[in-house]
Design a protein that fits this description.
The structure holds two protein chains of two kinds.
Chain A (H helix, E strand, L loop, with lengths): L5 H5 L3 H8 L7 H32 L2 E2 L5 E2 L4 H12 L13 H30 L1 H18 L4 E5 L3 H12 L3 E6 L2 H9 L8 E3 L5 H6 L7 E6 L4 H14 L5 E4 L3 H9 L4 E3 L1 H14 L1 H11 L17 E4 L3 H12 L4 E5 L15 E4 L5 H6 L7 E4 L4 H14 L4 E5 L6 H7 L3 E3 L1 H14 L1 H12 L2 H15 L5 E6 L6 H8 L7 H4 L1 E2 L2 E5 L2 E8 L2 E4 L12 E6 L1 H12 L1 H9 L7 H7 L1
Parallel strand pairs in A: 3-4, 3-6, 4-5, 6-7, 7-8, 9-10, 9-12, 10-11, 12-13, 13-14
Antiparallel strand pairs in A: 1-2, 15-20, 16-17, 18-19, 18-20
Helix pairs in contact in A: 2-6, 3-4, 3-5, 3-6, 7-18, 12-13, 12-14, 12-18, 13-20, 18-19, 23-24
Chain B lengths: L2 H21 L11 H17 L6 H30 L6 H31 L3
The chains are: A alpha/beta, B mainly alpha.
Chain lengths: 596, 127
């Protein structure tokens, strides 16, 4: 105010413009109040003026007495009384005394003046309520209140693009709470159309601004994690950094497309960085080297109830990579490391020969949608093609053209937009790389079954024969549809019945007993223990006779209802007793007394 | 020159001068204090208050506060006037006039602070 900006005071509408300019940064309740006041300046002055002119007129115009002689004008008190009920169109009539004609003439002016004044003010207020900046500000204040009142653990999802939306669906299906921050209104509208069971709080703001994260509950005691999933690497880094600085305790999971961002994030202590391009390229190589391991891995991470895929390994031989951006680079580097001959086609390249020592493929300038370019890249002799451009239509065109020349090609497609799913389904590529799915699925695995991530890391190191054996065992119990993984921790909070039993003497319990069916203990639940963690060491595929100890963490895979039944046994001591010994102890205090 | 600044300064100053005009005179002499001037002071004070709406700075906040104080004092004075002149039926007695004028004098003090703020603000502006 030192610059005496009176123009801002007398003008109006400045608040809305300011709020609109500050898209992204959440507003405090106070600024909304000031915005309303500023917008109401002119209408209020109009009302005050119309009232005062009306009152003043009445105090000047002479009235008339009963006998027709002139009477003194109204006093201010009566004038204000009359204007008050006339302006609001209540209209008690000519109070306190019958009016003179001069007073009636002035009353006509009063009625029109004040009614127009009120109408103008009301229209202004209504237009203020419809103002987008105002609605956004009010929405943000409401959301901040809702987040503050939350008493359940929640996750903070930054970015509601394909990744964020998929993650929201998956978490919602698992009854987990989350708050979403997104700056694009179109994305928010898409999310609101999603059929989510719980209406999530959505903050319309730029997540890269720290204030947005704080509004969305970054420092809330129930905030269990921050997921930076915007399509922009810079924004993700900003979110990860802000989360780390503003709430050290909260785990941060961030998506990163470029290796450089991933390095910065790790340096800043981000707990888990997901680089979809590297993850997929690693899987491609795993499928090439140990097809069984890849098959197990994709089966365990597949969406619920997907069928076990047939073994289908990427062939060894010359490969063509079209589009040599970050993804193309990640794939070609690994293919070269496998000792394969790779030709990379990219419009931004200069032609150049291969340099396997440097990890460089043979480079060719051009776009893969041209027959001549594909022919020069050696598509007729190649065994595999990676269409890695960042445009879905281009990728499909490249793949279609290449396959028409060489039908036996192993085609790997990159799908950028979830909206193009139908096209990719129709094309039937051998492998499809969807960055949004890779990130979202990994987030869900990390949030819901942290042990699964560890088990998958083991799978990546193992060989084909081992993986085939695991698949065989799992199939015997669970069937061919993809199983659900869950973790059981044997502590008093998550498994009170088991930990009570373990603390009692002479009551050894084994994994096999947990896997018995509570309806009939001779039956086995359709589930299998994949890994047991005890004191930092891991035991893979523990067999049914493995004895349990307090504090163990066990990763199971199986059908969803098996999980529910097992959960019942973890909490119910009688049920557990039945599973372990076959004794059906009577329930309830009275029966216990009688039996005792 | 900025018309908005002229109107802003004008209304603040007019509020103070009208207020002073009403207060000026013997405190208990009804003929020295015309109720029309009280009415004018109230209207101009209300307009000055509304003009100060929506300024978030420290000086803006104090400006608004002084105006609100003046409004409260003047409206109380008007209520006392309406009560004694009409509801109580006592007419314009010296005692009532004294209490009306003393309330308006309180408003005058707030208005003077407002004018001082305006002057200080103008002097601080070296452009």
């Amino acid at each position: 105010m030192a610059d005496g900006d009176a123009a801002d005071r007398s003008g109006h509408g400045g608040g809305a413009e300011r709020a609109a300019r500050g898209v992204g940064s959440p507003l405090a309740a106070q600024s909304v109040l000031f915005m309303v006041l500023r917008r109401l300046r002119t209408p209020l002055i109009v009302i005050v003026l119309s009232y005062s002119v009306s009152v003043l007129g009445l105090t000047l115009i002479p009235g008339v007495a009963d006998d027709g002689s002139p009477a003194p004008p109204m006093s201010f008190f009566h004038a204000f009384y009359f204007v008050s009920y006339t302006a609001t169109t209540i209209g008690f009539g000519e109070v306190p005394a019958t009016f003179s004609d001069a007073q009636r003439m002035w009353t006509i002016v009063i009625i029109h003046l004040t009614v127009i004044g009120w109408t103008y003010a009301l229209l202004n207020v209504l237009s203020l309520f419809q103002d987008r900046a105002f609605q956004r500000a009010v929405g943000q204040i409401r959301l901040a209140g809702r987040v503050r009142r939350t008493r359940e653990p929640f996750h903070l999802i930054c970015g509601a693009g394909d990744t964020g939306q998929r993650l929201a669906r998956l978490l919602d299906r698992r009854d987990m709470r989350f708050v979403i921050v997104e700056k694009d209104e179109g994305r928010i509208a898409e999310l609101e159309l999603e059929d989510l069971r719980i209406d999530p709080p959505i903050l319309h703001a730029d997540a890269a601004l720290p204030q947005s994260l704080l509004t969305a509950g970054l420092r809330h005691p129930m905030c269990r994690g921050v997921l930076a999933l915007t399509p922009d690497d810079g924004a993700n880094l900003a979110i990860a950094t802000a989360a780390r600085l503003l709430n050290r305790g909260v785990p941060v999971i961030a998506g990163a497309q470029s290796p450089r961002t991933a390095t910065s994030m790790r340096a800043f202590g981000t707990h888990h960085v997901i680089s979809p391009f590297d993850t997929f390229a690693d899987q491609l190589i795993l499928a090439m080297r140990e097809p069984g391991c890849y098959r197990l891995l994709s089966w365990l991470t597949a969406p619920l109830d997907a069928e076990l895929e047939k073994e289908h390994e990427p062939p060894r031989g010359p490969w063509v990579v079209c589009g040599h951006g970050r993804f193309g680079h990640a794939v070609s580097r690994r293919l070269i490391a496998e000792g394969l001959q790779v030709t990379a086609v990219d419009p931004a390249h200069d032609d150049g020969d291969a340099d396997p020592a440097e990890g460089l493929p043979a480079r060719l300038r051009g776009v893969g949608t041209e027959t001549e370019v594909l022919a020069r890249a050696g598509i007729d002799e190649a065994v595999g093609l990676v269409a890695a451009a960042d445009n879905d239509v281009t990728n499909l065109a490249i793949a279609a053209l290449a396959r028409s020349r060489n039908p036996k090609l192993f085609v790997v497609l990159r799908q950028n937009e979830a909206a193009n799913q139908v096209l990719f389904d129709a094309f039937r590529a051998d492998m499809v790389m969807k960055p949004s799915e890779i990130i979202a699925d990994e987030c869900v695995a990390l949030l819901t079954t942290p042990l699964l991530d560890r088990f998958l890391a083991v799978v990546r190191r193992k060989n084909d024969a081992w993986a085939d054996e695991v698949i065989h065992q799992l199939r015997k119990r669970v069937g061919t549809r993809s199983p659900r993984a869950w973790t059981v921790r044997l502590d008093p909070a998550e498994a009170p019945a088991v930990s009570a039993r373990l603390h009692a003497e002479n009551r050894p319990t084994t994994i096999g007993e947990l896997l018995r069916d509570p309806r009939n203990r001779k039956d086995r639940l359709p589930a299998q223990a994949l890994m047991l963690l005890r004191g930092g060491g891991e035991l893979l595929l523990p067999n049914d006779d493995t004895a349990l100890a307090a504090g163990d963490r066990i990763l199971f895979a199986g059908r969803g209802d098996a999980r529910r039944r097992m959960q019942a046994a973890l909490f119910d001591e009688k049920l557990l007793e039945y599973l372990c010994t076959g004794r059906d102890t009577p329930g309830g205090w009275l029966f216990e007394r009688r039996a005792g | 020159m900025n018309l908005g600044k002229v109107v802003f300064g004008f209304s603040i100053l007019l509020a103070a001068t009208l207020n002073f005009g009403f207060v000026y005179g013997d405190i208990d002499n009804p003929s020295h204090h015309h109720v029309s001037e009280l009415f004018a002071a109230i209207v101009v004070n209300l307009i000055a208050t509304i003009m100060k709406f929506g300024d978030r700075t420290q000086v803006g906040a104090v400006h608004l506060a002084t105006s609100l104080v003046a409004d409260v004092q003047l409206i109380l004075a008007a209520l006392v006037w309406a009560w004694t002149a009409h509801a109580a039926g006592a007419g314009e007695s010296p005692a009532a006039t004294a209490s009306i004028v003393s309330l308006a004098a309180g408003a005058l003090f707030a208005n003077v602070v407002s004018v001082l703020l305006l002057i200080g603000e103008t002097l601080a502006l070296r452009r």
